[in-house]
Amino acid sequence: MRRRKEHIIELAEQFAREFLASDPSGHDWWHVHRVRSLALEIAEREHADAYICELAALLHDVADVKLNASKQEGLDRVRIWLDAVGEDPAVTSHVMDIIANMSYNGGRNTPLTTIEGQVVQDADRLDAIGAVGIARTFAFAGSRGHLIHEPGDQRTNTQTAIAHFYEKLLKLQGLMNTDYAKTLAAARHRFIESFLQQFHAEWPEYKEVHRTDDS
User: Among 1, 54, 57, 213, which residue carries the largest CB count within 10 Å?
Assistant: First the structure.
């Protein structure tokens, strides 16, 4: 059983690497690698099933709606793969439940009820904050043709990299599920706050210049 699980993990890693290898938006293989590492670290502290956590972490972005034509297409892609490698139906059901419901979705998704789901969600959210989270934010903005910043109300200028911090990233610390993730999130959150303070200090105030006919 142990060898079989190790083999499926190896196959899942290969599957994720191949699918995400060329992604420029911050949802690449290295994001998945970091989420997997964080999930295993949190799972150990929270006594979660490490195999479920690792498998869901490896596959979560293969199903991401941002990388597929639709959410259903992404979920079908993962489920078909799990069936093809002969995964146990109970494991497949658990992993699919995690992947289908772990995204931020404006904070509107139903809370995950299993500790494994909470662990993987926390790991994914941790990778969205801190220094790596900052880098991923600008990578994503660039991949979508978004501006870095547009001075004004951050609640209305939502199509910029900086607006994304206020729209989502600064909220993630308060949405962590597990005690250990909350501890890790605190330091990463402070780093984002420090970055934004420095960013705004370096961005000069803009005042519109109105020319007259005599000028």
Answer: 57
